[in-house]
């Protein structure tokens, strides 16, 4: 039995809509989200700061285990820091592609056509580095950190896509160098690197297909 009192309550805001409207709204949203693609060639054109602020506000509205909100979003936009980020990521990635990756893993990513080079970390006008915040001197013990941060990142990608921006979810491996580049303490653990910007005029993406609904969804 906890000695901590529950919070006071407030009424739930309900946006219930007629079923026809709800279907239309969800179909439109699904169509819009289906147009999102991971982009690896960015234009250097700048992105309004206010869009990034609002997208991160959307991400930070995500549910989290015990409402601990165990996330930190570091927006890297200075050319010097992006250069350091790219250099460190490419060093890890070169090691990964040349030595650490298993043949099975290389086969799995081969259709995407990626290699150790990560120029997008410098060409994109900004890179959002997402950290999981674990227990530390100024942070409480979090619960379901990966699930919570994953949901927040989903909202972030959706918000940025909704604003007409392109993103890539990039996971250099290992990622510890990001603490040094972003000057974050050890209890913050890198989760994802997300270059953000507009696609380059000649950007292309692999012609991937999604699994059909019948394969990924069951009703019982
Ligand atoms: C957790 C996660 C890690 C990923 N890591 C990388 C990465 O390190 N480099 C990369 O080029 N793409 C990476 N991707 C992007 C996937 O390759 C991409 O999402 C997938 O091929 C589907 O393509 P789409 O995002 O264009 O629909 C990652 C995606 C996720 C969700």
TrEMBL record:
Residue runs in coiled coils: none
Domain of life, per lineage: Bacteria
Keywords, comma-separated and alphabetical: Flavoprotein, FMN, Oxidoreductase
Any Pfam family matching the protein: Nitroreductase
UniProt-recorded name of the protein: Oxidoreductase
Domain Nitroreductase: from-to ranges: 34-198
GO molecular function, one term: oxidoreductase activity
Database matches in InterPro entries: Nitroreductase, Nitroreductase-like, Nitroreductase/BluB
Keyword Oxidoreductase: yes
């Amino acid at each position: 039995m906890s000695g901590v009192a529950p919070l006071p309550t407030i009424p739930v805001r309900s946006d219930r809509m007629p079923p026809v409207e709800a279907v239309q709204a969800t179909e439109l949203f699904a169509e819009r989200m289906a147009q999102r693609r991971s982009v690896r060639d960015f234009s250097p054109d700048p992105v309004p700061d206010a869009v990034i602020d609002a997208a991160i506000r959307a991400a930070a509205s995500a549910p989290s285990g015990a409402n601990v909100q165990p996330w930190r979003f570091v927006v890297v936009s200075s050319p010097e820091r992006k250069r350091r980020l790219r250099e460190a990521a490419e060093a890890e990635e070169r090691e990964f592609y040349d030595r650490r990756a298993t043949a099975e893993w290389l086969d799995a990513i081969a259709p995407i056509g990626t290699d150790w080079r990560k120029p997008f970390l410098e060409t994109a006008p900004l890179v959002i580095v997402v950290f999981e915040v674990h227990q530390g001197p100024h942070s409480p013990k979090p619960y379901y950190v990966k699930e919570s941060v994953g949901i927040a990142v989903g909202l972030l990608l959706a918000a940025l896509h909704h604003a007409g921006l392109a993103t890539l979810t990039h996971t250099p491996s290992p990622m510890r160098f990001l603490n040094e580049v972003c000057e974050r303490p050890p209890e913050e653990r890198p989760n994802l690197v997300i270059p953000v910007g507009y696609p380059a005029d000649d950007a292309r993406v692999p012609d991937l297909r999604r699994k059909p609904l019948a394969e990924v969804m069951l009703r019982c």
